[in-house]
C-alpha cells in the first residue's frame, strides 16, 4: 500500500507565538541535543495513511462533539474539527487551533497550515548538554565536599 500524507504545518507566526509563550522550550527545540524531541514533535504533525485528508474529509470524520484518531509516525493524533465563519479549526489537546490555509496539495498528500504547533510542555525535556553539565558540576561539588569533610575529620 502506498502511503499518502496529511501534514499539519505550523506557520511562522505560530512558531513566533510559541517562542513568546515558551522561550526556553523554543530555544531547546533548535539545540542539537534536543534533536530527538524535535523529531518526535514534528512526527506528531504528520498523518500517514492510505490516503490524504482534506479539511472537509477531517470534518466528516470528527465534528465538534466526536473526536477521531488518525495514525502518525509517533503516536495517534486525536482531533476534532469545526467550521465557523468560513474558517476551519482543529481541536488538539484541548486547544482549538485555526487552520490558516487548508488543503494545500502536494505530490504525496495534503498540507494544512495551522496557527499553533502540536507541542506539549512535557515534550521538551531537560536532558540536554546543559543539564549534563549541571549534573557533572553537582557531582564534582558533592565529591569535593565529601573529600573536604574527610580531611577536616582527620
UniProtKB/TrEMBL annotation:
Source lineage: Eukaryota, Metazoa, Ecdysozoa, Arthropoda, Hexapoda
Record field: transmembrane: 133-152
Name by which UniProt lists this protein: Fasciclin-1
Pfam families (UniProt xref): Fasciclin
Record keywords: Membrane, Transmembrane, Transmembrane helix
Record flagged with keyword Glycoprotein: no
Biological source species: Operophtera brumata
Occurrences of domain FAS1 (ranges): 1-118
Amino acid at each position: 500500500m502506498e502511503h499518502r500524507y496529511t501534514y499539519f504545518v505550523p506557520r511562522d507566526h505560530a512558531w513566533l507565538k510559541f517562542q513568546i509563550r515558551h522561550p526556553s522550550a523554543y530555544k531547546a527545540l533548535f539545540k542539537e541535543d534536543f534533536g530527538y524531541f524535535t523529531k518526535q514533535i514534528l512526527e506528531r504533525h504528520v498523518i500517514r495513511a492510505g490516503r490524504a485528508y482534506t479539511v472537509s474529509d477531517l470534518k466528516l470524520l470528527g465534528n465538534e462533539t466526536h473526536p477521531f484518531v488518525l495514525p502518525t509516525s509517533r503516536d495517534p493524533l486525536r482531533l476534532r474539527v469545526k467550521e465557523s465563519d468560513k474558517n476551519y479549526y482543529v481541536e488538539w489537546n484541548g486547544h482549538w487551533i485555526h487552520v490558516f490555509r487548508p488543503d494545500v496539495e502536494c505530490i504525496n498528500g495534503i498540507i494544512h497550515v495551522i496557527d499553533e504547533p502540536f507541542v506539549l510542555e512535557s515534550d521538551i525535556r531537560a536532558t540536554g548538554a546543559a543539564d549534563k553539565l549541571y549534573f557533572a558540576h553537582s557531582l564534582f561539588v558533592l565529591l569535593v565536599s565529601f573529600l573536604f569533610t574527610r580531611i577536616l575529620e582527620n
